[in-house]
Design a protein that fits this description.
AB_hydrolase_1; 11 helices; Alpha/beta hydrolase; AB_hydrolase_fold; hydrolase; alpha/beta; Rossmann fold; 10 strands; eight-stranded mixed β-sheet; two-stranded antiparallel ribbon
């Protein structure tokens, strides 16, 4: 099994954990909300043979710090830029899943000189619809309810949520696990606060409120791959199809039978698609002020 090694460093006084594997051109892997760098582990083996993988735990997630501060897409993108600078990495192919997809797009917009390619996996920021449970986190009362739902005394709640979602056909089995394990990870005040601030920066009670739709045409000069599970119940696959239509020259890969985590449900295909995309496209070489005109 390929080692996916955890490291820790301090950025602006905050502890940041990141994982690395392999050597070669850099793949920067950005996870989704309530997740961590470990989400990429199923696909690391085949990718590490050809790439240097850098996968951070975003602030407020995993083993990184949970400071009181800015959890917007722009702040996360700046934090990722600072991590790359600390590791003496100038440029990377940026891969983002769910929330990480929104961060990846923001990163490409803020720091085009550092982005060689863009890969969006079941990405946020491409449409309004998002799962009911994430919209519920934007409700005012969520601040009070969340500690009760994630306390040790409420561990059985996860099974109740799973049963309700399955009976109501609100999510397929794999996506139920994503939702319940994600909420289950919010077991301390810091992680819960970070989660709520992150959710509310991109979602309200009506759905996703941050959209990249007005900038998708910029992908004409940035090689872009879109990967989605056809059965995704958290962020619909139609978002990926619409983004592909709006992004000139982009490549769309739909995974039949997969939900919100195609890189988990078919990691070998995911790794093969990603490696092929990198080998058949030329890395963009943009300047820091590329988007100014």
């Amino acid at each position: 099994m390929t080692p996916f090694v955890a490291h820790e460093l301090s950025l602006h006084g905050q502890s940041v954990t990141y994982r690395t594997a392999g050597s070669g051109p850099v793949l920067l892997l950005l996870h989704g909300i309530t997740n961590s760098s470990e989400t990429w582990e199923p696909a690391v083996g085949p990718l590490a043979d050809r790439f240097r993988i850098i996968a951070p735990d975003l602030l407020g997630h995993g083993h990184s710090a949970t400071p009181r501060g800015d959890y917007s897409l722009g702040a996360h993108a700046s934090g990722v830029r600072d991590l790359l600078s600390a590791l003496d990495v100038d440029r990377a192919t940026v891969v983002g899943h769910s929330l990480g997809g929104g961060i990846a797009m923001q990163f490409a917009y803020q720091f085009p000189e550092r982005c060689e390619r863009l890969v969006l996996v079941s990405s946020g920021g491409l449409g309004r619809e998002v799962h009911l449970l994430l919209r519920a986190a934007a409700l005012p009362g969520a601040d009070w309810v969340l500690p009760l739902l994630t306390s040790r005394g409420a561990r059985g709640l996860g099974n109740g949520i799973k049963a309700t979602l399955r009976l109501g056909r609100i999510a397929p089995s794999a996506d139920v696990e994503v939702l319940t394990s994600g909420f289950g990870s919010l077991d301390n005040a810091g992680s819960r606060s970070a989660f709520l601030h992150t959710v509310r920066s991109v979602i309200d009670t009506h759905g996703q409120r941050v959209s990249a739709q007005d900038r998708l045409h910029l992908a004409a000069v940035l090689p872009t791959l879109i990967v989605w599970g056809e059965q995704d119940s958290i962020i619909p696959a139609d978002h990926g199809r619409a983004a592909h239509d709006a992004m000139p020259g982009s490549r769309l890969e739909l995974f039949p039978g997969a939900g919100h985590m195609p890189h988990h449900q078919d990691p070998e295909r995911f790794a093969a698609v990603l490696a092929d995309f990198c080998s058949t496209t030329e890395a963009a070489t943009l300047t820091a002020d590329h988007w100014r005109p």
